[in-house]
Specification:
elongated, 20% helix, Molybdopterin biosynthesis moea protein, domain 2, alpha/beta, Molybdopterin biosynthesis moeA protein, domain 3, 397 residues, 28 strands, 32% strand, 4 domains, six-stranded mixed sheet, Molybdenum Cofactor Biosythetic Enzyme, Chain A
């Protein structure tokens, strides 16, 4: 067996970022910026009011209450047509430009209006409720450095600055296939020895949730010709391919035989539980992840290796999910076997700490227990941890 660090380094060294491309902002959610984004204009582009109220000259409010002449109403999206002289005010709506001569806003709740006269009831100083031009960003400011993941809020900033396209690393198309004569996915009654294919749908869904484009390559029988055709097609049409099943030491060698013939593969036994077996390599430069067939092993292997490698290809600065510190609510036992154990747990936020509760059923075939959990507790080789002890935790999305 090899350490997880060695296996992951091998994968990451062969999953380099793809060449950047211009991407519509509307399609960029979850992508990573390939270059620094510089503000091409100021935000806001002009001084405007943060409140509905009246634009005034603060010097006119030295003694209150005071009556001022209302010379116009300025709605958002419209420019002022009048400059303010002493004794004048403009009714103004939130977001509207500040008229010349005004240096403060009095909120409408502190005023009363009678025809073209407004009575101001409070004193305010210069700048009151005024958002200066460039208050958020100035033209030429660094908005986002290269390597920034584009969230909903960040896309909103880009739209506020008028960006229609942005240089990003491309969204990956990732093919997924399952192999095995024992698998069925037609929804019919099971024949003796058959099981339903859950891994393909699980992996396709994980890819979608991680902002990749999942491509269903189907359920392939244990036939070398069919497997070779599916793998070849996936390597041509996709940026990466994930297979499920056929990588353990005792498996029939259909997948192994094909990958060894058409790919440059490494077959690994990793010192972790679950997800010990992993195949990784390339077919004509396209990364191929061979994940184990047990459902939980497949999901954990995806988390530890495939997700990290694919995120690296999409330009993420930190493609590997960082562990956080949690507290074990109950003891989590294990035996010494030379492996790191990834234990399914439920993580709860309690009194400012992350507290984890182990889930019953830790077998690598027990998919329902994986579905009930939202995190993995990382237990180094040894006897486990006692209740109240600190433990590393991977919070799953």
């Amino acid at each position: 067996m090899i350490p997880i660090e060695e296996a992951r380094t091998y994968v990451m060294d062969r999953c380099r970022p793809q060449p950047p491309e211009a991407t519509d902002v509307a399609d960029a959610l979850g992508l990573v910026t390939a270059t620094d984004v510089i503000a091409n204009e100021s935000l806001p582009p002009f001084a405007n009011t943060a409140m509905d109220g009246f634009a005034v000259r603060s010097a006119d409010l030295s003694s209150v209450p005071v009556q001022l002449e209302v010379v116009e109403t300025i709605a958002a999206g419209h420019n002022p047509t009048r400059s303010l002289d002493s004794g004048q005010a403009s009714r103004i709506m939130t977001g509207a430009p500040i008229p010349d001569g005004a240096d403060a806003i009095v909120m409408v709740e502190k005023t009363s209006v009678d025809g073209d006269t407004v009575t101001i009831e409070v004193q305010v100083g210069p700048g009151n409720h005024i958002r200066p031009a460039g208050d958020d960003l100035m033209k030429g400011d660094l908005v986002f450095p290269a390597g920034t993941r584009l969230t909903a809020g960040r896309l909103g900033v880009l739209c506020s600055l008028g960006f229609r396209e942005i240089e990003t690393y491309p969204r990956l198309r990732v093919g997924v296939m399952s192999t095995g004569d024992e698998l069925v996915d037609d929804g019919g009654d099971l024949e003796p020895g058959q099981i339903r294919d859950s891994n393909r749908r699980t992996l396709l869904s994980l890819l979608s949730g991680d902002a990749f484009v999942p491509v269903d390559l189907g359920l392939i029988a244990d036939d070398e010709g069919a497997i070779e055709e599916a793998l070849g097609q996936g390597a041509r049409d996709c940026d990466a391919v994930i297979t499920s099943g056929g990588v353990s030491m005792g498996d029939f060698d259909y997948v192994k035989a094909v990958l060894n013939r058409i790919g440059d593969m490494r077959w690994m036994q990793i010192a972790i539980k679950p997800a010990k077996p992993l195949a990784f390599g390339t077919i004509k430069g396209t990364p191929i992840f061979g994940l184990p067939g047990n459902p939980v092993s497949s999901m954990v292997s995806y988390e530890l290796f495939a997700r990290a490698g694919l995120r690296s290809m999409m330009g993420f600065k930190e493609p590997i999910r960082a562990a956080i510190k949690g507290i074990a609510a109950n003891s989590i036992s294990r035996r010494t076997d030379g492996k790191i154990h990834y234990v399914r747990v439920i993580a709860e936020h309690e009194n400012g700490a992350t507290v984890v509760y182990p889930v019953s059923g830790q077998g690598s075939h027990m998919l329902a227990s994986m579905a009930r959990s939202n995190a993995l507790a990382v237990l180094p080789d040894g006897e486990g941890c006692e209740a109240g002890e600190q433990v590393d935790v991977l919070l799953l999305d």
